[in-house]
Design a protein that fits this description.
The protein has 174 residues and is of the alpha/beta class. It is built from five helices and eight strands; from the N terminus they run E-E-E-H-H-H-E-E-E-E-E-H-H.
């Protein structure tokens, strides 16, 4: 029995699910089906220009798996373009990435972006750069100025003095 596929993380769903040559009804065209994880691989590698390793981390797959996904996506897009087929986007073993909430102090607009897409430069409604996060985010939940309430930890002190590693290595040799 084959191993079950892991969920592949995608940042957003496409706004359109079918792309076809202009002037030809979809009923008369053959369709090539591209899964949502293949579309996400195209977005990360070709649109954003990420290296395969970084893109694979965002999708939560191995680099080799990402390579297979992007190769399949390239083949399907080329088939649809060369042979004049419709490209249908659907399905796949995917999960949506968590979202971050932003708000504009100028126009009070609120919007969401998935994690891993970077901080927006301006408000999409008014163009103001006076924006802020309105959710706690994964790093801010339960924090009090660091892990130890602002006090340096013992491991950090050992790391800063350089003594922690030597002692550990000496202990491993004995």
């Amino acid at each position: 029995m084959p191993r079950p596929r892991c969920l592949r993380r995608i940042a957003c769903r496409p706004s359109s699910s079918l792309f076809k040559p202009a002037g030809i009804p979809a009923a008369f065209l053959q369709q090539t089906v591209m899964t949502l994880d293949e579309l996400e691989a195209l977005r990360l590698a070709d649109l954003l220009g990420l290296y395969h390793e970084a893109a694979a981390l965002q999708m939560k797959v191995s680099r080799q798996t990402f390579g297979r996904i992007i190769e399949s996506a390239h083949r399907k897009v080329a088939d649809a373009l060369i042979h004049g087929k419709a490209l249908k986007l659907k399905g796949g073993n995917v999960e949506m990435a968590a979202m971050r909430n932003f708000s504009c102090s100028g126009c009070r607009n609120t919007w969401q972006l998935p994690y891993g897409t970077g901080r927006p430069a301006a408000c999409p409604a008014c163009g103001s750069d006076n924006i802020r996060r309105t959710d706690a985010g994964p790093r801010q939940v339960g924090c009090k100025r660091g892990r130890n309430g602002g006090r340096p930890s013992k491991t950090a002190a050992a790391r800063d003095t350089g003594g922690g590693r030597e002692k550990k290595r000496e202990g491993e040799k004995r």
